[in-house]
């Protein structure tokens, strides 16, 4: 690893950050930040931060990485990147809670009932928040899994996909860089155990897909359903920058050269838009993946943001009157129209949404992702037009403590997806809904003692009406790229194109590279 540059060669901190460049015991450079707010003219804080550190990477990669944010590079959330400063209808929907509160405060001040003293009532709300196999060169045979090729099935019933105009895509972003071999374990390959004497997963604990690989043992609920794994998915140029690769996935720009100013999910939502309802839904709050969409999309972090809009007691009638009465120009007119759309959506939701049990396992045991997918299930069931859903599970940047962190994350993913699909099945919608994962890149082939550094290719999961088994091409465990990473065999635009084909959209209609797609759907 390259030595850390002297202090006078390190870039200054941006105006929105506090802290200092530090060097931890693993040899990584990181920037700690402490400022909860920032000035717009100073540049936006990058979206892809991890816990209490904004960046944590090998200095070789970090030097270029630092230039990206410091100089306002092309990552899409920094400086003058192409996804900045786009005022769209979706942006209004994402921020309506703030403008609505301001609108109601003004309404209260101007129309306060006689005899009522004091300030307007608060309308703020809170959001919801093993034994390892040692080094070996022996080949281990796994028992063959039944039903891993051909039609997708749940139990004895064939699960065939619904018509394309009824299908829903739920894309879960595994933020930070998910490790492929820790998700789909090459348990029959001795080289895997040689590369990771401390962090490998025992061959007798994996959930067999075929006689060579199996799912992580903490993915039992997913393994019990029709699941396809797509191996070797990654960047085409070996970039290991979080910001760069997150932005490329967001835009569907596989090599960073196509200058896309819109999000991939935005273009996909437009392609399936029939002119009514909410087509795109982010249950993880704002995402640039829906930037500059023409179709109606919605960003939520809590269903209470919708439920309060339909209540008839206390402040809510006045609240609705205030936020749908903005006047003064195109901007305020759009805000009022957006609020009207949102209120109409709230009225269309099932009346029992308020009864969501926060103690149910998919929420209690899977933190934010369980809450996100519970919201998604209810909005899909409400039949308000949702076709594209974005959710997010963070924490995959496992430079240290990979074993226990990844084990916890796989459990959270499994509980949340399992609970979500149980709901979808109970609503009679299994043939319509596909769950897929994405992650900006994988992890380094060889462990760094307790963790795994940034890599290239990874493995993605699809659960639902799919042709089960292995797809793509597994990256070689012995023929690594020049940086010691698993080489990409399936450029990630091919994977995105496959997701587009699930919705009946030609990949070339939404991706500038016009990739092929993988035939994955029964």
Structure write-up:
The protein has 522 residues and is of the alpha/beta class. The chain is 29% helix and 13% strand. The protein is built from 15 helices and 17 strands. The protein has helices at residues 59-70, 89-94, 96-111, 190-195, 220-223, 242-251, 264-272, 304-307, 316-323, 330-348, 361-364, 367-381, 402-426, 492-502, 507-510; strands at residues 21-23, 29-32, 53-57, 153-154, 157-158, 168-175, 184-185, 207-208, 214-215, 227-234, 280-282, 297-299, 388-394, 433-438, 458-463, 469-472, 490-491. Strands 6, 10, 11, 12, 13, 14, 15, 16 and 17 form a nine-stranded mixed β-sheet that branches. A three-stranded antiparallel β-sheet has the order 1-2-3. Helix 3 crosses helix 9 (316-323) and helix 12 packs parallel to helix 13 (402-426). The longest helix has 25 residues, at 402-426. The protein is globular. The chain starts with 20 loop residues before the first strand and ends in a 12-residue tail after the last helix. Residues 1-157 have low confidence and may be disordered.
């Amino acid at each position: 690893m390259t030595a850390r540059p002297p202090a006078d060669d390190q870039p200054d901190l941006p105006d929105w950050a506090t802290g200092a460049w530090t060097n931890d015991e693993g040899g990584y450079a990181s920037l700690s930040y402490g400022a909860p707010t920032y000035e717009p003219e100073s540049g936006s804080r990058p979206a892809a931060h991890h816990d209490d550190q904004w960046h944590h990477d090998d200095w070789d990669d970090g030097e270029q990485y630092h230039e990206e944010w410091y100089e306002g590079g092309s990552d899409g959330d920094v400086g003058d990147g192409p996804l900045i400063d786009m005022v769209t209808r979706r942006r209004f929907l994402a921020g309506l809670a703030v403008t609505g509160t301001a609108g109601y405060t003004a309404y209260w001040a101007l129309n306060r009932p006689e005899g009522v003293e004091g300030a307007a009532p608060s309308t703020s709300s809170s959001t919801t928040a093993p034994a390892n196999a040692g080094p070996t060169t022996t080949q281990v045979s796994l028992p063959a899994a039944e039903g891993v090729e051909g039609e997708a099935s749940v139990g004895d019933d064939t699960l065939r996909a619904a018509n394309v105009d009824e299908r829903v895509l739920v894309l879960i972003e595994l933020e930070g860089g998910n490790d492929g071999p820790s998700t789909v374990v090459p348990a029959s390959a001795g080289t895997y155990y040689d590369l990771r004497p401390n962090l490998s997963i025992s061959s007798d604990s994996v959930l067999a897909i075929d006689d060579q690989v199996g799912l992580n043992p903490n993915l039992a609920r997913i393994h019990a359903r029709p699941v396809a794994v797509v191996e070797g998915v990654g960047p085409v140029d070996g970039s290991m920058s979080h910001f760069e690769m997150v932005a490329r996935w967001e835009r569907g720009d596989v090599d960073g050269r196509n200058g896309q100013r819109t999000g991939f999910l935005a273009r996909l939502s437009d392609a399936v838009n029939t002119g009514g309802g909410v087509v795109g839904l982010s249950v993880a709050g704002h995402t640039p993946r829906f930037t500059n969409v023409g179709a109606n999309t919605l960003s939520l972090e809590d269903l209470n943001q919708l439920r309060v809009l339909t209540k008839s007691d206390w402040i809510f009638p006045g609240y609705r009157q205030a936020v749908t009465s903005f006047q003064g120009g195109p901007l305020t007119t759009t805000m009022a129209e957006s609020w009207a759309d949102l209120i109409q959506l709230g009225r269309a939701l099932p009346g029992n949404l308020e009864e969501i049990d926060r103690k149910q396992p998919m929420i209690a045991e899977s933190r934010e992702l369980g809450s996100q997918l519970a919201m998604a299930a209810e909005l899909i069931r409400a039949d308000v037009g949702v076709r594209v859903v974005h959710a997010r599970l963070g924490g995959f940047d496992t430079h240290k403590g990979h074993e226990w962190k990844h084990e916890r994350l796989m459990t959270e993913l499994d509980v949340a997806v399992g609970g979500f699909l149980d709901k979808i099945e109970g609503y009679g919608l299994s043939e319509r809904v596909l769950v897929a994962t994405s992650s900006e890149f994988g992890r380094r082939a060889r462990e760094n003692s307790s963790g795994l550094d940034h890599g290239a290719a990874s493995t993605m999961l699809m659960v639902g009406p799919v042709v089960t088994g292995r797809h793509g091409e597994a990256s070689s465990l012995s023929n690594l790229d020049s940086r010691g990473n698993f080489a990409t065999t399936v450029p990630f635009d091919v994977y995105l194109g496959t997701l587009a084909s699930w919705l009946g959209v030609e990949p070339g209609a939404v991706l500038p590279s016009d990739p092929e797609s993988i035939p994955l759907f029964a």
